[in-house]
Amino acid sequence: MYTAPRGTQDILPIEQKYWHYVISKAEDIAKRYGFARIDTPLFEETALFHRSVGEVTDIVEKETYDFKDKGGGYLTLRPEGTAPVARAYIEHGLFNEPKPLKLYYIAPAFRYDRPQKGRFRQHYQFGGEILGDAHPLADGETISMLWQLYQELALKNIVFIINSIGCAQCRPFYLKALKDYYTKNIDGMCPDCKCRFEKNILRLLDCKEEKCASVAQKAPRSTDYLCLECQTHHNTLKAYLADLKISFRENHRLVRGLDYYNRTVFEAVPQDSSGQQSSIGGGGRYDNLVEQLGGPPTPALGFGTGLERIILNLKEQRVAIFEISHIDVYIAIMGSDGRQQGLLLATNLRQQGYRVLLGSGEKSLKAQMKQADKSGAKWALIIGEEEAQQKTVILKALQNQQEQQNLEQKALGNNPTKYLDKPS
RNA sequence: GUGGGUGUGGCCUAGCGGUUAGGGCGUCAGGUUGUGGCCCUGAAGGUCGUGGGUUCAAGUCCCAUCACCCACCCCA
Fold this sequence. Notes:
Elements: H1 16-32, E1 36-37, E2 43-45, H2 46-53, H3 58-62, E3 65-68, E4 74-77, H4 82-91, E5 101-110, E6 122-131, H5 136-152, E7 158-164, H6 171-185, H7 191-199, H8 210-217, H9 228-243, E8 248-250, E9 262-270, E10 281-285, H10 289-292, E11 300-306, H11 307-316, E12 329-333, H12 335-351, E13 356-358, H13 365-375, E14 379-383, H14 385-390, E15 394-397, H15 401-411
Parallel strand pairs: 1-5, 7-8, 12-13, 12-14
Antiparallel strand pairs: 2-4, 3-4, 5-6, 6-11, 7-9, 9-10, 10-11, 14-15
The structure holds one RNA strand of 76 nucleotides.
């Protein structure tokens, strides 16, 4: 028997309401914040990710899906959304558009990871990028938008963790201080950390090993080494967040795993979940990425948030999502004339915009009525031989199970969010 | 890559080493001629993840393997 590849999942009809709920809200918010949609290919040249995400990051070292196509080109299924957007920005000369340019996407990302709760080899991200804006206002607006999304989805207890990791000017001083500090302490630390000490010293800070964590706790803080500009940037952002009444706290050990970040980095974390590792969103500033990839110097920042993790939290927090029936009318038919008339009527109603389920020609009327009830249709139309000959139909209003359940739920007042599964 | 747990029909699940592996949900068909939701009856559907082993006897014990889940790691 074939099964979905490890770490991937089928999103069955029963689950679709969650996805529709989150995606439609994300698009709605993106538009309200002035973001335009961009879609990039599922795969890119392998080198793009190596140059942007970083050669020694875990993502690039061992988690990408790489393949060679028949022309001999090296390609990689995108492990994240920012690099492709930056590439498209440069390739199509979008830097000629009025700045800042705000782009969003909803797309799958691929990482060869060991699957776990909320972690998949294919997962969907809602992401956004603001290109061509160096002011902390953009940082504030980005975090505010994500915050607003979580609020409107009715997710509770979300906290933002923020940090500043400095810029090209001040980071070298910080890295040197870190190196000095860790040179003295490296002996007792875990093998992973010893390796990171050589390759990417910043990552030592977020090691979860107990002994390493206590060392990291006392390590020099990046915020103490910021240049004046970075300091001002950081403080201004904090003031904006406080103004917006967004729950946030600083954590000097927050270091994100992608090399292109500078200055602001942040993560969104559900507070009450037992572990603190399960961030549902994150992002940061990447002022040098566009230039690194061959574009003009372009300060920028972005965010990504995982749809599976949002849905997981919606379920854990028991956010009620109502799905009003997707069927308006069920047409039950009998006899060859009835079938003929039923098909015509169904087509006619569908042309007028109704959602119509036409009964099976081989089921009894009783069976069709049962199906009508389960379908959630509000109305049943019955066409038998008699009706077909007299060109009439029997119209019957249905008070079906689903409707009753919804009424009960509403009576209980258990509706922190209302959601109608209607296109417009 | 490292540790731990689980694996019984589409879903949930009972099953102290021993008769034809039970139940619930769902599906399908009926409960008098053309009508739903409740109720009743019946049916279909399982090589008990897979492969070895122990035993007179294995869903039940042992080993291996695979898959899934959880944690580490990493991140969305």
